[in-house]
Amino acid sequence: MIRMRGRLVVLQVLVVSLLALLAVRLWQVQVVRGKEFVAAAMETRTRDVVVPAVRGQILDSAGRPLVRNRTRLVVSVDRTSLNRMEGNGRVVLQRLATVLDRRPADLRERIRACGPGVARPCWPGSPYQPIPIDDHVTTREALQILERQEEFPGVTAEVQAVREYPGSTAGAQALGYLQPITQSEMEKRAGSRTVFSGVDLVGRDGLESVYDSALRGVPGLRRVQVDRLGKVIGVERQVPSTSGDTLITSIDAKVQAVTEKALADAMKSAPRADGAGAVVLDVRTGRVVALASAPTYNPAIWTGGISERDYQRLLSGKAGKPLVSRAIKGEFAPGSTFKVTSVSAMLKDGYPLHGQYDCPGSFMVGSRPFNNFHGIAMGTMTLHTALVKSCDTIFYRAAYEQWLRDGGLKAKAKTKEPMANMARAFGFGRPTGIDLPGESAGRIPDRQWKKDLWAVTKTDNCKRAKSGYPEVAKGDPSRAAFLKQLAYENCVEGYQWRPGDAANFSIGQGDVLVTPLQLAAAYAALVGDGKLRSPRLGWALVRPDGSMVKEIKVPVVRKLPISATERAYIKGALSDVPSDGTAAGAFVGFPMNKVKIGGKTGTAEVYGKADTSWFASFAPTDRPRFVVVVMVSQGGMGAETAAPAARKIYEGIYGFTPTGGPAPAALPAGRPASEPPMIKRDGTVAR
Description:
The protein has 687 residues and is α+β, with helices and mostly antiparallel strands. It has 24 helices and 25 strands. The strands form 8 sheets. Strands 2, 3, 4, 5, 10, 18 and 19 form a 7-stranded mixed beta sheet that branches.
């Protein structure tokens, strides 16, 4: 009995102790940490839903849409929610696949994270945002998901805006594309003024990238109350999103279409052509009227996720790397189109403007003969005729003489290098600064560049001078022998700026590289007011209600270091090229009495490939409004491929048929738009 009472006492003490402990714990929870737990409880009953902003449109200079939004029903999946379910949401995906008439494996591929070794389709964005898996959903399919939400946890179906490209492939590289923002990008930009949300798409290239912050707008926020199952039971707070600004560009959609077709035709006309680029500039303002590259692609391929096959094609050299804009990124030897800088350098160096110059069929540069085209001698002529007939030997002589005055192989302590410095003054050797990402700088070689290159390549050249090129010798012994000899020369004296380097430079050959855009900007300055400008595609940013945010100015970079008289002389010579010079054959039948074209052909040799075809031009010659530059890689002679393509662009702009008759004109007034279009308060364009 006593033992029993002892046990009851122990039990009573234990119960009292537990009650005391519970009381202390309740005091801690309710009093000491009460506010903390109340906040936590409230947090579990609310959810912040980001409301994406409608992205701004991209319009042409007449207000026509280049990129616009189209509403579609989009089904998205929360991968985090699926991974918390049994079997990582396998049952839910199977149900979803049945509704969407898709294979479950396809859906699983779309929601996996992109990374090394992961083929597309995959998800390149943040793992914490809804992943769109189908943007072509019917209303019936969406209702099946929404009305049976308990069977599709983590799955949403809602109307979203997706990008649409009315011009299909037109200007694809200039416009760019969108991709989901990655988690690392969100973390990097967490402290910036730019607001990002987990459901944002960001520009990855072109105008979409450069003007991303303005186009994207500001996401809204909707704070909702949910029950323990996550079902919405009320809205606690709502902040509306702010639509992105509309970007008005200087591109004219009709001229762009004409330019794209001219490039496509040029590629077809040259069997070995592997790429082309074209630029149409407004001479007076420096604004871009058209910017095209071939081969091209349709940016809509990115919408809704891209397949591995399509992704690899965009990057494939065999397909011509359509993702790359040859107009701003392609670097090629410019051939005789470059002679405008060589003439300018000669004039700056004291050669007489109205002097007489001998044009032999061949000229000895050091110990090596440098020949005219087909070795044709053309007698004595002016610099005007030298440009019209494209005499090479006059430029070889001038370059050789300048090279000797700089000390030849034993360079002076301070060299003038007139041609290299003039080329830089024309904007070559550095990016133009256009409002597009990834622009190439080109290359202007000189004595210092040669030394720097030698320092980097000496070890490899000396090694190859001994071992040769056995991998090349198997298929082409003569080329292997040439490469071995070249490696030896570069090993021993590769630091020297040889006379042949100077001669090749003078006619845009050798190591000189330019982009079509650089050449267009240089010609616009030459035939315009002498001011070199940094071209712009963006013209103005306006709010959806039409109010102006800002006008995008075209910066003036510098003034060409030649006089107005010298510029007029060179322009006069170029004005005769399409009618009486190297491009005359390409412009037979063109109504020069209505619109006279000026320009310069270029045929640049490339070892192991067909020549690069160039034509740099302007019109009308009396008061130029347009500069048109066309480049076709492996297109052959400039007069064969590039010049005919430029002619088609002018025919489209002014409204001429190939026989010179009238046709619908892309620009009936014969000039680009002088001011951006007005946007009404309802978002429509005032015509």
